[in-house]
Amino acid sequence: SLTVTTNGTTRLQRTFDATLETIGKIDADLEGNLVVTIGTAVDDRSKYSWWENRPLYGWRVLVPRAKEQAGPMNARLSTYGAIPQSVPTISMEPPRNPAQMDRAIKGIVEGRYQWIVFTSTNAVDAVWDKFEELGLDARAFAGVHLAAVGQKTGDALRDRGMLPELIPHRTKQNAHGLVESFPEYVEDIDPVSRVLLPRADLGTDVLVDGLIDLGWEVDDVVAYRTVRAAPPPLEVRDMIKSGGFDAVCFTSASTVKNLVGIAGKPHQRTIIAAIGPMAAAEAREQGLRVDVVPEVADVPSLVDALAEHVAGLRATGQLPPPRKKRRVR
């Protein structure tokens, strides 16, 4: 018996089992330098082949995020053996009319709000940038309660010297979970009835309607705009539509909508992983099959759930078929 290894010591390393009689029939692209191993050492390959035995080994995973935001996800995917590729789908721009944000910042300083609710790290960045522009700092938040939709948003507040008092349970870190954990307005207890909600221009009504139902008045302010990014290179678009990516990890509903808009729908062989219910709902709305939704809506849980799902498919022999090779004319 023998083995043939191609692209050795790289993320593209692949090893194929064969014999002297069958080596010519290996159905694979044997590109680059090859290492052929013959003899009894071949029998120990499964015992020591941890490199190729990782759940996502050799999988090309599409990460529809800007490179500066995709770092933690790409690093975690790599530990499972994946080959991540980032594709920006949105860019952040300031609001077209800054007057609304100016009034909101003035309201924070004047004590107009009982709560400020942050639904993303981008919202934290937008408010803080405005503070710095006006020469303000964290002291201006004195007396205001702060809520964050999730741990990452809470960390962004802490990094700026502010302590969030409300973060939903780790399994409910979305708009619905924030409403469920938010206190009702009680006139005899709460001196101010107004909540500031600085967020993107494309936010849903779930949070606003939920807070109003709890008795609060809500200032829903556009803190930043999400603008669809330019389409990726033709080669990447072709890979997306032809099954060149084995999986795609969506981290929000907007990344789903924008990826489909700028690059087209992922091929049906591609495993679709969505970070939470809203991203999953948008993927289904776009006609995609959702394969993975983690119990906890954060990046580590999303990647772990994808790896676990793929390991399960491999164990039961249900992995997606390989991408079809295109004929060269």
TrEMBL record:
Pfam families: HEM4. GO terms for molecular function: uroporphyrinogen-III synthase activity. This is Uroporphyrinogen-III synthase. One of its GO terms (biological process) is uroporphyrinogen III biosynthetic process. It comes from the Bacteria. Residues 73-303 form the Tetrapyrrole biosynthesis uroporphyrinogen III synthase domain. It comes from Corynebacterium sanguinis.
